[in-house]
Structure formats: C-alpha cells, structure tokens
Fold:
Amino acid sequence: MKKFLSVVAFIMVFALSVACFTSCDLIAGLTGGDNKDDNADQVTVSWYQGSKLLKEEKVNKGSKVSTWTPDAIEGKDFTGWFAEASLAQPFDFEKAIEEDTDIFAKYTSNVFVEDDKSYYLIGTGSGDMKASGWNHDNSMANLVMTKKEGVSANIYEIEILMYAGDAFQICYGGTYDGQVGIGYVPGVEYADGVNRYDSNTYTAADKKFATVKGSDGTVIFEGHDEFNKEYWTWNIFLAEGQDGIYKIIYTTYPDHPADNQITFELVEKKEPLKETHDMYLRGSFVENWDISDDFKMTPDDTKENFSFLLNITEPAEMKLYNKVSDKWYGSEAITVVGECGTWTDEGNLSVAAGVYKISYSVATDSATIEAVAKSFWLAGVVNGADHWDCSSGIEFEKVNDTTYKAYYTFTEADTNHSWMDGAGILGACKAVYGYAGWAADIWYGNAEDQGNVGILSYGLYELVLTLNDAADFAAGGVLSAVKLEGYYLVGTIGDGDTWRAESQNKIEVTGDVVSVEYTWTEKDKADWLGAEQISAIKIIKVDETGAVTWYGNATNGDNVIIPEVGTYTITLEGEIVTATKQ
Structure:
C-alpha cells in the first residue's frame, strides 16, 4: 500500500512541475519576461564565391569558424578563404567572430598560359639594386629575371644582395605600367608602423604601412604608402637586420594577373653594411663647433651621396666632417659654385647670411656648396620618373606678378603608373614652390579640386601657374596645361629671345596659307644682333608628339632678319620663310 501511495505521490508532483513550467513560460511569453532570445548572442557568417552565396551559418559571438573546401570548379584550384572581396587579405580563422562576417573563396586557374614578357627589378639601395637607380634602362641591363625552364609554369627568378632599406618593384617593358610591389607577396599585412615618406606613425587600420614576416614572426620586408594607394604597387623595402642575398621569385598567370605572386628565399645571411660615412656640417653656427644632429647631412638610398640645406641668418664659418673617419673637409675638398663664400687662412668657408645647398659625394670624396633660392617647379611624373617635390629641374618662368609658365613635352616614359590607366590619363603633374631638389613647401593643382592636372595625350605643353595673391604664395593658385601643336613664330620677339613655341605666338592657318602679321619695335632688338638689325625670326611646326620642325630663309634655312621697326607679314611657303614690310 505504501509503495502504491509513493507512486501516486510521485506522479502528482511531476504533473504539478510540468504545469508550473508550462504556465511560467506562457506568462513570460505574454508579459515579455526575463527569458532570452536564443539568437541574441549569434551572428551570421556568409561564405561567398565572388557574388554567389555558397552557404550561411549562425554562430555564437566570440566563437571561431573552421575552414572547409567548397565545390571544385573546372579549370581552377581552390586556394583559400579571404576577408575581403578583393581577395587581398587572407581570412584569419584564429580570430573570434564578433559581428556579421563575409568570407570569400579564392580560385586560381590551373590551365597553363605561356607568359612571353621579360621581367626585371627596378629600385635603389646599397646592394645590387644600386645598379638600377630607379632607371628602366639600367634595370633592363643589370637586373633581368631568368625564366625557369622545363616547368609548366611561368616562374622568373633572380638573386640579389640586399641591405636594410634597399627597395625594389618588378616591371616589364621599360615603363611602370604593370608594376607590382609588396601587395603581391603572400602573407603581406597592413601593420602598425612609421611611414618613411611622411614620417608619421600609423595603425594597421590606416593602411599606410605593411609588413611581410618570416616563419618565426620576424619582419623581412616592409611597404610604405607614398601615393594614397593600396599596397599592390608599394615598393618592397628590406627591413632592418635582414641583410643578405635573396632569391626573388615571380610566378605569373597572364590570363589572370591578379593571381601573380612574389615569393623569396634567403640564400645567404650577410652582415649589415658597414658605415663608412656619417657626414655633418660643423661651424660657428653651433657652440664650440660641436657635432649637432641639427646639421647632420642626409644620405640618399645608396648612401653614397649626402646633402644638406643650410639656412643661416648671420655670417658664419664652416667645414664638413665625417664622424666615422674623424676627417674634416675644407678648402681642399669643397668646391664653391658661384660667389657664395670665401676661404679663411684656416681653410674654413666663410659665408654670408642666406640659404645654401651642400652636397657630398663618397665616390669623389669631395663636396660642393651653392646659394639657392625658392622657386616654382613642375612636379609629377616627368622625365620618366616620380618627381613629387622640387627635383624635376623644370622651373617656371615669371610672366608677371601672378603668372608663371613652364614648358614640357610629355612622352610615353611619363606614363609609368598603372593608376593612370584607371584615371584615363597619360600623365599627371602639379606645380610646387620650394628649394631646388628638396621637398615642396606649397602645392598648386587644378582648378576643380587642386588635384593633379591630367595629361590626356603626349606632346608639348605650356603649363601656366596663376597665383591667387602675388604677395602671398601660400594663398594658393591654379595650374593649367595647354597643348601646343601647329605653327609658331619664334625669335627675338616679345621683349627677348623666344626660340620656342608659346601659345601667344601661334600662327592661325587659313587653308594652305601659313601667315602672320607682327609689329617690331626697338624693344624687340637683342644684344647679339647687328646695328642694322631689329630682329631675327623663324617659323616652327610642332606636331602632335611635340617634335619640332624649323623653317628659315631661302639661302640656307637660317634666321630671317628684320632690318627695321615696323609691321611685317611673315609667310611660310614650302619650307621658306619670308618677311614683307607693310
């Protein structure tokens, strides 16, 4: 009987428990009680192949997902999962998932397509990259990669000696079109670091600095953003302490170049390059002529040339000094350019207040000094290289207080960046203000947004800088570019010698007649002309590429002489120029 009562009691207790739990749940559901939504702590992970969704799954926040292999695609191999649709950054499966996340599959073609290009390294440094000097001709002569034979793959290799700070890219065809940089090295990651181009410290999120690490986590190569672009074309710099001989391997896929890869092998470890020169200016501008880092000369990438911009507000005496060898350089080793200083009996250079450029060459163990002044310069991709500073050597000439002009012929050599293709331009430039060979103090761009002035076709251009304020260069200005093409009057015209095409001297052609009127006055006379001569002229023709053809007199094609002041009709017939006074 007791056993029966126990069973009945158990059944009653169980029934009451079920009823209680059920009613509690019902009440909670009706009143919005404390019960949690099972999905509140979950996020969605979506797996894609391009824009195609492969699968979607719910996972708990803070958990990790595991890699898996998607279905095979004919002609392609699955090579991994990536964090972005651009397939630039491999997905980190060790990272906890905290929010909705998209993961992208990468496939590469397994169909072999022969690559017939010849690749080479271009760059600079103290090792083998010194032979390049960022010059395509030098690189194609000394740093060509060798294509591996007997394999069904496009593999190019080269062994080079590199020291810390040496840099390179891979190019082909004599231009920067198709250049590849650190973004093509597997394992590259944006990282925290100091950007060498602006000396600012950035985090990985800023995407201004990148690294490639070895298997032990040591940084082998670095990349630094120079032109506000992603890391695909950034120069590849060897990191400190990684000096050695490296085999650089470039594997290409002509039908899918985004899959190209740069890999490397350390062939032989080397000791860091021994420092032989650490150059300083020492003089009366520092107490007791002491060594001061404020007057430390800056080496170039090869560490064979040093420079310094000295700005002093009162007269001073000075010499150069090599801290490594404890050697002084005075009158016996410094060449003075122009009249910017005199020598004392002690061999010190005595200079007046002003700004001076001092240059030292390791090769000649000598230096030069010259006075410099700020000016306006053409900056951009010119002379076949990047000159985004005051180093192009192309100086603007003053027309009036607010107008300056420069002339430059853009060629294919100036289309050396793949980003130009995307912008639909063949060249890019700005105007800058500063000391020759140094960083720019002020920049001037186009009228729309002060960005680069885009060059749409090769040829000769007149570049006009119009300042907003003649007394304040920092107030800004606008750079414009006018292509010069057609016939132009040149010679001793317009207050001086003008032996080049200028927009104001263009000859408008009517039918087949090339003719223009010009009035000469005494101001057009050049010092080198004879007593009975007012002017000497020619006509030139500038073609679409900027090439110039000259036309002169009937006797020998030389200058046509204007004997006296007055208005003349200048005519080109065939290849003969005549001048008839009205």
